[in-house]
Amino acid sequence: MNERDFSVGLVVVGVRAGIAAGRLVVLPLRVIARAPIAGTFAAQAGGRVARDGAQARALARRRAESATTAVLAAPELERAVDRALAAPLPEAVVRKLVDHVLASPEIDRVIEHVASSPAVRAAVVTQSTSLADAVAARLRADAARIDGEAERHVRSLFHRVVPRPGGAYGGLATRSVAFTIDLLLLGLTFLVVAALGGLTASLFGDLSGSTIAVLLGVGWTVATITYFTFFWSTAGQTPGMRALGQRVSRADGSRVGVARAVLRFLVLTFGFVVLLAGLLMILVDDRRRGLHDVLAGTVVTP
């Protein structure tokens, strides 16, 4: 016979006997409570006994909570946990613990909560904005440096005064970088739109290669004119110019109109094709104006 099992069995038998004795004690009280006169006194006595029992149960619960808190806060428990964690665990046990934690739905909820928290989103936005600002600042600094060096060399050939570094107008390198950024953005957008248009056209029949080439050429021309004209005449700067900190306006600082913006774009395009005449003027003009700026009456300022 196992002595420990026997002891536990005695405790269980004692609890059962106590419950049975309590039922026997309560049974006469139930019978008395049904009597007209004695029932009132029995109910009052039973109520007092019940209140005493409730108070005793609450006191026992508080003591149990205090004892549990004391055990959890005891340094002995901390040392026992440290010894258990420091002890070498079998690899199979560690693997099962890790698999259990990773497979639990609670870890999925924790990850989802952390990923969707406002603090994480704010940190990602701040980091992205900081990176974009740093890249734009580096591009502006490098482009301004190239502007100064190019103007110094070209002006020395014509024995003209070299302007001070920086200046109040946008130089050739700065404009070229901004224009390249705009062409990349416009090209990506045009490719997406052209792909969707080609997919739609294929549903109604096949198009010849020459027809597709003509449509793409016309579409690209219209897209570029619309892109630059829209941004120059409304915001005064394209996305590329905004990244480089440049703005186009009339000589008196007023907004560029649609007709003036179209003229500026056409002269800029043909001036670039014909011996680069329109752009080379920027290196020698005191206000860094190209041929397109002179004819359209515009300037580019930071």
The helix content, as a percent range, equals over 70%
Q: Provide the residue-averaged pLDDT.
A: 76
Strand line-up in the sheet with most strands: 1-2
Give me the Rg, rounded. 43 Å
Put simply, the count of helices is: 12
Pairing-aware structural class of the strands and helices? mainly alpha
Written overview of the protein:
- The chain has 302 residues and is mainly α.
- Helices cover 76% and strands 3% of the residues.
- The chain has helices at 3-33, 38-73, 75-86, 91-103, 105-115, 118-157, 172-202, 209-234, 239-243, 258-273, 277-280, 291-296, and strands at residues 247-250, 298-301.
- The chain has a two-stranded antiparallel sheet with strand order 1-2.
- Helix 7 crosses helix 8 (209-234).
- The chain is elongated, with a radius of gyration of 43 Å.
- It starts with a helix and ends with a strand.
- The mean pLDDT is 76.
